[in-house]
Amino acid sequence: MIPLEMILGSGFVGAGISLLAWAGADTWDVGLDFLERDFTEKFRRLRVRVKRLRAIILAWLGAVGAFFVFMWIALAMPVLGFVAAVILFCVPWYLVRRMARRRKEKIEDQLADSMVSLASAIKAGLSLPQSLEILADQSPRPISQEFQQMMTEYKLGKTLDEVLEETKDRLKSENFALFSAAMQASRASGGRLNDVIERIARSIREMQRLERKIQAETAQARSSSVYMALAPFMILAMYYFFVDPVSTMRLFTTIPGQFMLSMSLILDVMAYLWARKILNPDI
User: Fold this and answer.
1) Calpha distance 199→176 (Å, rounded)
2) What is the 3-state secondary structure (H, E, C) of 113-173?
3) Environment class of residue 146 by beta-carbon count within 10 Å: exposed (0-12), middle (13-18) or buried (19+)?
4) Would you list the DSSP string of 27-48?
5) pTM beyond 0.70
6) I need a labelling partner for 236 at 20 to 30 A (CA). Which of 23, 111, 128, 277 fits?
7) What is the H or E stretch that residue 233 is in?
């Protein structure tokens, strides 16, 4: 039989959450709008179409809230449950953002070779739209997808300048922004476009060389940051199984212990993210 205290506690928690949601309806709408816009932008950069995105976000928020209530009522871990729920709430945003950044980096790696091919096609006597169409057919993914969309929009009636501006806004790539500005300036002034593109391609390749050098020199430090982030969990497990199980369990069963675990978890995540930020500099 379910204890009366658990039933009353669950009822009060549900009533409190419902009252909070009703009182802050406008704030919730603003927050949901922000999340929907941010996820929509990231999925657009990933070229992924997600239907009913708002419903998915609400379902995820409901699942995170249910997890927090379970940790609070069933396991008597309100503090640790709250911190874990916040981290779970941030995980999808972090993963989607990471995938969008990786796709952007891959496009930037492929951009220099595509620019060299574009310059060769222009030097061979093809027009700029014809050269871009060749790149759309022959370039590797994912940059070929961007060239294909550019050519589709161009054939639908948009000017080449409009297509370049929209692609620049969609990719958020500094290298492509430089490429776009150079093409627009060269077309406006009547300069030799292939020479301009070749010079930009050499500059991009030099920046990529420096980035790869930094990545190689910091590879060991990045691995060490992962091990350091996992070390507290390994030490906690070692203390529980081999050193002092009773005292270790108090970290989970008492409020002061949960505060200590929560602060340790927050600091551990912050240290890992800070290390990743330091070890991935932008050139």
Assistant:
1) 14
2) HHHHHHHHHHHCCCCHHHHHHHHHHHCCCCHHHHHHHHHHHHHCCCCHHHHHHHHHHHHCC
3) buried
4) HHHHHHHHHHHHHHHHHHHTT-
5) yes
6) 277
7) helix 219-238
Q: Which tens digit of pLDDT belongs to each residue from 147-166?
A: 888 888 888 888 888 888 88
Is residue 80 classed exposed, middle or buried when 0-12, 13-18 and 19+ CB atoms within 10 A define those classes? buried
Q: What does the block give as tokens for 106? A: 């891959």
Distance, CA of 241 to CA of 84 (rounded, Å):
23
Q: What is the residue extent of each domain of the chain?
A: 106-215, 218-283
| C-alpha to C-alpha distances, 254 to 66, 87, 263, nearest whole angstrom | 22, 21, 14
Alpha-carbon gap, residue 252 to 264, rounded angstroms: 13
Structure confidence by residue, pLDDT tens digits, 167-198: 888 887 777 887 787 777 766 766 677 777 77
Tokens of 87: 């981290």
The single-letter DSSP state of residue 254 is: S
